[in-house]
Specification:
This protein has a domain of 54 residues. Helix content is 48%, strand content 6%. The longest helix is centred in the last third of the chain and has 25 residues. The two termini are 21 Å apart. By secondary structure, it is mainly alpha-helical. It is built from 5 helices and 2 strands; from the N terminus they run H-H-E-E-H-H-H. The protein has a two-stranded antiparallel ribbon with strand order 1-2. This is Rrf2 family transcriptional regulator.
């Protein structure tokens, strides 16, 4: 969105991210609530970034989208009385908690301005055809 002049529709964002516009609107609503984006309705409407990129970190975005689980593996509580589940949870718990703490701390040090700079550096070295094009049929 930072690279686009003017608002970007949920449909356009969904095409680029290969998802449904409803998913985009749900995610963006959380970011709007935090003041990171704003939206406009009607012709010429869409989403825009509401703050300077240097003031928004990856951690801000992570929290703005509801702090989803960071790891696919983790403690389970499907069968709290199961000795195997208890043993696995006990063995992994502290390590996963520390990994999450470190990752979130790292997220707090990366701003969207940093990402934009890295994007432009890579774009300058971009090889045409290296990235798959968005699927415009789905």
């Amino acid at each position: 969105m930072a690279e686009h002049r003017g608002p970007v529709t949920s449909e356009a964002l969904a095409r680029v991210m290969r998802t449904n516009p409803v998913v985009i609107r749900r995610v963006m609503a959380g970011l709007r609530q935090q003041g990171y984006v704003q939206s406009g309705k009607g012709h010429g409407g869409g989403w825009t970034i509401a703050r300077d990129l240097a003031t928004i970190t990856l951690r801000d975005i992570y929290e703005g989208i509801g702090s989803p689980p960071l790891f696919a593996i983790g403690n389970r509580s499907n069968h709290p009385d199961c000795a195997v589940e208890q043993a696995v949870n006990g063995a992994l718990g502290a390590s996963l908690d520390e990994a999450e703490r470190q990752l979130l701390a790292s997220f707090g040090t990366v701003t969207l301005a940093d990402l934009s700079t890295h994007f432009h550096d890579r774009l300058a070295q971009h090889v045409p055809g290296a990235c798959p094009e968005p699927d415009h049929h789905g």
